[in-house]
Write a structure and sequence with these properties.
heterodimer, A: Aldehyde Oxidoreductase, domain 3, Aldehyde Oxidoreductase, domain 4, seven-stranded mixed β-sheet, six-stranded mixed β-sheet, 19 helices, 29 strands, 24% strand, B: alpha+beta, Uridine Diphospho-n-acetylenolpyruvylglucosamine Reductase, domain 2, four-stranded antiparallel β-sheet, 35% helix, globular, binds flavin-adenine dinucleotide
Chain lengths: 795, 279
């Protein structure tokens, strides 16, 4: 799609170098396809040692003794450390924030101290000349455990008889919040129809192609810690490593090269990564830790794990009067540092029913501890739960009233002309387009045709169903997300841009590249705004020594916040260039512009190339009159002000076939219409949506961390933990509505999480639509064939 | 996930491989490595030496001899899928192998490896049992033949002695007028099946004279179901009777993919599909 007129704010789009809004091929793709990407595991440093962690085989146990003697004697082993050693250089932390009410999470040590609280928790670390040797010696570390009762089930967490995981806290409650707007009790009484449902969502995880990896290199001569880390927020890591290792923050350098996917998994502080940095400090040499796939499954943060009860009240005309939810979530034994493990539930409370006009809204969230892998924010935090409960209830209410599901939505959606307004939970909303999106979706899906297809299939004994859902997505967060609560997480991002002697333009940005195309997007914005060819622009990112300060990549904020900083910096640089050119060319600034790497005269006549201009400035400054402010570098920052988040919205639908003999669900087609404001590169937006939908398919149908009754993760490998693969991906048809964000010149909102947030609800509703003739429904994700057959009473 | 240290030995020929294997109880044959290498990386075993039989050319041949289709142990799944003779004699093998993992794995994974490994959820062992394949084993004392029906002893347990190598599998081409069936139910394409069935029916004047069923993914080895076959010779297919009879035939064992109930249910569904397709 080459629609150049979609962002009138950015001026005439038919000029040269109008890259914003075009699907410009990305340079970096070639590099990755040729296998030339540079990942943390590619880093080789002189004297580098390798780490292997000895991890708890128990969900809950007392450590009676640790004997490292035999491991230390193993040939090739350099040392073995336990918490007694690590504690001397790395202080513990606590995963609590100050802005969301009381959070109760105890101090967490980088290695287990006295007690282990999940299977996979690191207890000791072996340092050796090779990873294989370190693994050999790990088997020689003797740890004597005394098994303790494990608290696994979130539903029994608060029972009197349940084992309390942290004695000091008195019970297993981490956090709770209630939202109450209007009077739901009264509204339910006045409702014509009240529908209820309870949904549950299994734990799953992010499964990044590249596992977590870190190389730490302590230089005692400079007192400098250089850390190669495949994370999403280099400046956050810089601050945290400095704080807990008691280093000067300016002397901690975080370098993130290529990152093979992150999805929120790599934005948290992990004990094994902090220990890796501590070991480098203790041993005064570079050390590497790369999580293997087994470690990924048992130590990368898990997500979801919710059970949610929902209730909707509707009048006889189909208007929603009340909406109520009660959500329970289990987060493992600790709230994760520094973002905490309250945010997913908080989002469920904020986002449920957020697309609709709901006069009375009540929501309760309870978050409890468990002896399982810690749980925290993963792509589309809370969204899949909020969307699934909302849309399940909306379908139920429409069906109970005998109303068309599409019509029911249309009368309850927040109208496009009513912004600014608020979600039912009270969060400000602006610049959304639910009506435009669902209307476009209805046409794309051709709903009347689908109804016909459904009927004809049913006559042949085939069960097809389809869905239409609406959602909002949280993107471009302001300081209200984390900073206000005390976390060292920047909501601002910066960009610096310079014209070099060669005529090349170089940007450095605080946004990181996780494979999603940050570089391409920043290049496009800069080239567009400066008036240079795309190949002229180079990008540096992911290095705290070389980039401006900023938040990094998470919460769908890179293009909207980091991109705006690049836009502003580019405009400043252009202004500087034109001012200098005006002097050189003896012309009015107004008569000049930059196009295709040349400063041109608007009225014709000879121009000057940016290269010539730069060389005059850099090499022959004496040719310029004294006092010319010849700065060929500009820097700008941006953060969202005046609103907690920039919301976006989407409408999605899917068509499924449910095989009632085998219980297998096949997604025949998936449609999405999303509104992320200005699309800088439509192809990248569409691939974000598609990739997101695929991860949503994973949550809806396949992915689950399965624990046994002892708290052992039983499917921590890629054969037994199922992620959707090419065969499981349907055609995903994507279209757009464009409502620019009024919070920036660029007008871009985020697009990274909508698919993951919306697909699970869309799929569940479509399956339940297919099951209507059989008078049953499914309510538990992943919707496995076995659950479908159970719902059908076949097994 | 780094395997413990091991030695690697590339065998020059069969005799060489057998010699090494005989001299070292902890030596292990390396075929395509698709099952073996992951178990090493997960540190589930620690062999002293891997004997790579990948450069023994005589193990890579597909031949037709004395009314047998003979598959050398080192023929890859892909090689077999692309072989004209196989596709003529046993077109069903192509359909079956297309469900074994994915192309990259099929390029490395071998016929002998799959038969020798004996994963109870694997397709080929069940097929070998169904068509009465003969499995050729070579050891220090020469060659012997074991019928596929006698070959599988228990979970990952086979008739191969520790000093033997599986060299080929012989499939009788004349299947006595049997029509063959294959189907399986997987969560994702290419996964090991929650339950799978290979079956055969011989008919005379549209009357079923002989029925064979071998299930995979259902128990500790390829599972035959004689009582169900007998039932089907006398009665029309009926889901609940078949499910009950199957439970008499097979001790359905739950695994991470599905419960024993699910496996029994799917097995009965698969029998229904077979009766519909072959009748
Ligand atoms: C992701 C994935 C999915 C898969 N899905 C399926 C599937 O759906 N269905 C399926 O059937 N298989 C599947 N497989 C397994 C695949 O088919 C393997 O190739 C096969 O099981 C083993 O063959 P191999 O040549 O790789 O054997 P190897 O891994 O080399 O060996 C396996 C075992 O057999 C022994 N062995 C091998 N050859 C001989 C021989 N000639 N004589 C004696 N012992 C021998 C080895 O010592 C070892 O113990 C999958 C594998 C992977 C990685």
């Amino acid at each position: 799609m080459d629609d150049l007129n979609q962002n009138p704010k950015l001026g005439a789009a038919d000029r040269p170098n109008s890259y914003i809004g075009r699907s410009v091929p990305r340079e970096r793709a070639k590099k990755l396809l040729e296998g030339k990407g540079k990942y943390v595991d590619d880093i080789l440093l002189p004297r580098m040692a390798h780490l292997s962690y000895v991890r708890s085989p128990f969900a809950h146990a007392k450590i009676k003794s640790i004997n490292t003697e035999n491991a230390k004697k193993y040939p090739g082993v350099l040392n073995v450390f336990t918490i007694d050693d690590i504690e001397k250089v790395c202080s513990p932390w606590q995963g609590v924030l100050g802005h969301l009410g009381e959070m109760r999470s105890p101090t967490q040590y980088p290695l287990a101290k006295d007690i282990v609280r999940w299977q996979g928790e690191p207890v000791a670390v072996v340092v050796a000349n090779k990873r294989a040797v370190a693994e050999d010696a790990s088997e020689l570390v003797e740890i004597d455990y005394e098994d303790l009762d494990a608290q696994l089930d979130m539903e029994t967490a608060m029972d009197k008889s349940t084992r309390v995981i942290h004695d000091d806290l008195g019970n297993n409650l981490f956090w709770t919040r209630t939202v109450n707007q209007g009077d739901v009790g009264e509204a339910f009484k006045q409702s014509h129809i009240v529908e209820e449902v309870t949904l549950d969502f299994a734990r799953h995880t992010g499964v990044t192609l590249e596992t977590r990896a870190i190389v730490a290199d302590w230089d005692s001569s400079e007192e400098k810690m250089t850390v190669y880390h495949n994370g999403q927020a280099p400046h956050m890591m810089q601050s945290i490593i400095a704080k807990h290792l008691n280093l000067s923050e300016g002397l901690v350098r975080i370098i993130s090269c290529d990152v093979g996917g992150s999805f929120g998994i790599k934005v948290h502080v992990y004990p094994d990564e902090m220990v890796t940095v501590a070991v480098s400090k203790l041993m005064k040499r570079p050390v590497k830790f790369v999580a293997d796939r087994l470690e990924s499954y048992s130590t990368d943060i898990h997500s979801r794990c919710h059970k949610i009860l929902g209730k909707i009240g509707v009048n006889d005309k189909g208007k929603i009067l009340a909406f109520e939810i009660d959500d329970l979530s289990g987060i493992g034994p600790f709230s994760v540092y520094p973002r905490t493990s309250a945010i997913e539930t908080n989002q469920v409370l904020n986002l449920s029913a957020a697309s609709y006009i709901i006069p009375n809204y009540k929501a309760k969230g309870t978050v409890v501890f468990q002896n399982k892998t810690p749980m925290c924010q993963y792509r589309a935090v809370g969204h899949p739960i909020a969307v699934a409960i909302t849309e399940a209830l909306v379908d139920k209410a429409a069906n109970a009233l005998g109303m068309d599901r599409y019509e029911f939505r249309k009368i309850n959606l927040i109208p496009d002309n009513s912004y600014p307004t608020k979600t039912p939970s009270g969060v400000p909303l602006e610049d959304l387009s639910h009506e435009a999106c669902i209307e476009k979706l209805e046409k794309m899906m051709n709903i009347s045709q689908l109804e016909k297809y459904k009927k004809e299939s049913l006559a042949k004994g085939k069960y097809k169903g389809f869905s239409i859902i609406n959602m909002v997505e949280v993107t471009n967060p302001s300081p209200a997300f984390y900073g206000v609560g005390g976390a060292p997480i920047s909501s601002q991002d910066g960009a610096s841009i310079r014209l070099e002697g060669s005529g090349a333009v170089h940007i450095s940005t605080s946004i990181t590249e996780q494979g999603q195309g940050t570089e391409a997007v920043m290049q496009q914005i800069a080239a567009d705004q400066l008036g240079v060819k795309i190949d002229t622009v180079r990008v540096t990112h992911g290095d705290t020594d070389a980039t401006p300060y900023g938040g990094g990549t998470w919460a769908s904020r890179g293009a909207g916040i980091g991109g705006e900083a690049v836009l502003k910096a580019s405009r400043k640089l252009k202004e500087n260039i034109l001012n200098i050119a005006a002097v050189i060319m003896q012309s009015e600034v107004n008569n000049l512009d930059v196009q295709n790497d040349q400063v041109i005269r608007k009225d014709g006549g000879e121009g000057i190339s940016l290269k010539d201009l730069a060389q005059i400035v850099y090499y022959r400054g004496h040719e310029l009159p004294p006092g010319t402010n010849a700065e060929l570098i500009a820097t700008a920052s941006f953060s969202i002000e005046g609103i907690p988040f920039v919301f976006t919205n989407s409408a999605m639908g899917c068509l499924v076939d449910v095989d009632v003999d085998t219980g297998l669900t096949k997604i025949e087609k998936f449609w999405a219409v999303e509104d992320c404001g200005t699309q800088i590169n439509p192809k990248l937006v569409e691939e974000q949506i598609r990739g997101g939908v695929v991860q949503g398919i994973g949550g809806a149908l396949y992915e689950e961390c399965i624990y046994d009754e002892m708290g052992n993760l039983t499917n921590g490998n890629m054969a037994d933990y199922l992620v959707p693969m090419a065969y499981e991906m349907p055609d995903i048809i994507v279209d757009h509505v464009t409502t620019n964000s009024g919070r920036s010149i660029l007008g871009a909102k985020g697009a990274g999480e909508a698919g993951t947030g919306g697909a699970p609800g869309a799929i569940m509703n479509a399956i339940n639509d297919a099951l209507i003739p059989l008078n049953t429904e499914v309510t538990s994700q992943p919707i496995t064939p076995e659950k479908v057959l159970k719902a059908l009473g076949k097994i | 996930m780094k395997s413990p240290a091991f030695s690697y030995y590339q065998a020059k020929d069969l005799a060489d491989a057998i010699n090494i294997k005989k001299s070292d109880d902890d030596a292990v044959i390396l075929a395509g490595g698709q099952s073996l290498l992951p178990t090493l990386n997960m540190r589930l075993s620690s062999p002293s030496v891997l004997i790579d039989i990948g450069s023994i050319n005589e193990l890579k041949k597909i031949k037709v001899e004395d009314s047998y289709l003979i598959m050398g142990a080192m023929c890859s799944h892909s090689q077999i899928m692309n072989n004209k003779e196989v596709n003529e004699k046993f077109p069903i093998l192509n359909k079956l192998l297309a469900q074994v993992a994915h192309p990259a794995i099929r390029n490395k994974g071998t016929h002998g490896g799959s038969i020798a490994y004996g994963d109870p959820a694997a397709e080929l062992p069940a097929f070998a049992v169904l068509v009465n394949a003969e499995i050729i084993l070579s050891g220090p004392d020469g060659e012997r033949t074991v019928s596929a029906k006698e070959f599988y002893k228990g979970l990952f347990e086979t008739a191969i002695n520790s000093d033997e190598i599986l060299t080929s599998v012989k499939y009788p081409i004349n299947q006595n007028g049997m029509k063959l069936f294959f189907d399986e139910v997987t969560r994702r394409h290419g996964d090991y099946a929650m339950a799978g069935l290979v079956g055969s029916i011989k008919q005379n004047n549209k009357i079923n004279e002989e029925i064979n069923l071998v299930f995979f993914g259902t128990g500790d080895r390829p599972n035959e179901a004689p009582k169900t076959c007998e039932y089907l010779l006398k009665n029309e297919y009926n889901y609940s009777d078949i499910k009950d009879t199957l439970k008499n035939d097979i001790d359905f064992a739950s695994d991470i993919s599905s419960s024993s109930d699910m496996k029994a249910h799917l097995s009965a569904i698969l029998v229904g599909r077979m009766m519909k397709e072959l009748n």
